[in-house]
Amino acid sequence: MIEFKNVQKTYPNGTTALSNINLKIEQGEFVAVIGLSGAGKSTLIRCINRMHDITDGQLLVDHVDVSKLRGKQIRRFRRRIGMIFQSFNLVNRISVINNVLVSFVPDLSLWRKLTGIFTKEQKLLALEALDKVGILDKAYIRVDQLSGGQQQRVALARTLAQNPDIILADEPIASLDPVTSKIVMEDFKRINQTMKISVIMNIHHVEVALEYANRIIGVRAGEIVFDGAPAEVSKRV
Ligand code: ADP
Ligand code: ADP
Q1: What pTM, to 2 d.p., does this model score?
Q2: 222 alpha carbon – ligand 2 mean position (Å)
């Protein structure tokens, strides 16, 4: 469970991106965070895994105050939380399977040294993750030869290989065409439903959010202005 208690986030330049956020997200929910550009969606998501630190209030994940985590604890904590970006954040010029195996490297700067020493078990986990998102047949192709949608599914497989409880997705379909977006959203939905992984996604396509998420959180100027089921969303959000 993720709990925001009176959370505030002010950036060092004085911009307050979140004010007084109160929120509870249970394990297994599929939450879409919607709102205009600059509303605070990305900040909200990135505080959950400590990409950003909150400046006031409390943020708890499974009753643990994430602000109190240090060093090794943060790394262990982040392994439970997958992160998906608009720009995929893959390692170009290497194969799809090696991109998934990256999730087993504790520190990306060690990547070059560690390549080739993965265990058979890790390779099987990587292939299994690729199978879950329907791109097992692409395992040995260079990742930069895939389409955008396929690359986002590689990113999703990399996250799944970590066996996360939560996946945070920051505008995962923003750079994809409508048809590809649908395929990627179907993947998220299937992962959420069959593996009970919580999905918390920023998305500016309201219609897509309504179609796939179970809960919609509307953010405006750093505050939550709507929180409810897709069916309750009115046109004014
Ligand atoms: P959204 O994801 O809804 O577009 P963001 O969370 O990215 O919104 O941004 C919320 C507000 O915080 C905006 O006013 C944005 O300009 C500001 N902001 C975001 N990141 C930073 C940063 N690193 N430093 C200063 N201001 C930031
Ligand atoms: P994205 O769509 O990938 O979130 P953004 O343009 O929103 O890209 O932000 C890119 C980076 O710049 C992010 O790390 C964000 O925190 C930072 N950023 C966004 N707005 C501001 C701002 N007003 N001042 C400083 N940094 C910002």
Answers
A1: 0.89
A2: 15
